[in-house]
């Protein structure tokens, strides 16, 4: 089992974890249990045909019949609470049946929350924006990035869809959202897999560091 995740997470944001199960000859009924820290939240992005069930701080991916592919891929999004710090345990346990015996494989990893100064936090940007009237910086939700422009169906008709060509990609985002809380709420309800929050200055995307610099000067 291989787990890919960000090296650090920021309080008040989210991150995507990608998990690969090399199943070899395993098939039939199987289950992946993801145990997240108390206060965190989880959402399935890619299930490889599994049913996703949330129970308290556990997310379960349940297969009646494991896919025939050698590499079974699962992706999920973890939401980090505000005002949290330190290191936290993320545990992935895969349960399966081999030669009529129940077996399991576990992989524990660390959710390391960035210390203040490691990275500019979206919460910091949000707090600075609250002190300004008619601030030129807004939050948007990036819902796709492609090498070629495409006709992109906006499933959230109340929000405007914008396409920006940047770094060789056509990046699509919806919004704007004046507050970070509204952006997070849209992210949680978004039908777009892997959608994440970005910052715009007037009509151009900017980094958190650029936003912080603009707001502090």
Describe the protein's topology.
Layout: E1 2-4, E2 14-22, E3 30-35, E4 41-46, E5 51-55, E6 58-63, E7 71-79, E8 87-98, E9 101-112, H1 122-130, E10 137-146, E11 160-166, E12 169-177, H2 180-189, E13 196-201, E14 204-206, H3 208-216
Antiparallel strand pairs: 1-2, 2-7, 3-6, 3-8, 4-7, 5-6, 8-9, 10-12, 10-13, 11-12, 13-14
Helix pairs in contact: 1-3
Short description:
The protein has 217 residues and is mainly β. The chain contains three helices and 14 strands. Helix 1 (122-130) runs parallel beside helix 3 (208-216).
Structural class estimated from helices and strands:
mainly beta
Number of helices: 3
Shape: globular
* Span of the ends, CA to CA: 47 Å
- Largest sheet: spatial strand order: 5-6-3-8-9
Beta-strand percent range = over 45%
Largest sheet: 5 strands, antiparallel
Q: If you compute it from the alpha carbons, what radius of gyration comes out, rounded to the nearest whole angstrom?
A: 19 Å
Query: What is the fold named in CATH at topology level of the largest domain?
Result: Immunoglobulin-like
Feature tags:
single chain, five-stranded antiparallel sheet, 217 residues, Immunoglobulin-like, 3 helices, mainly beta
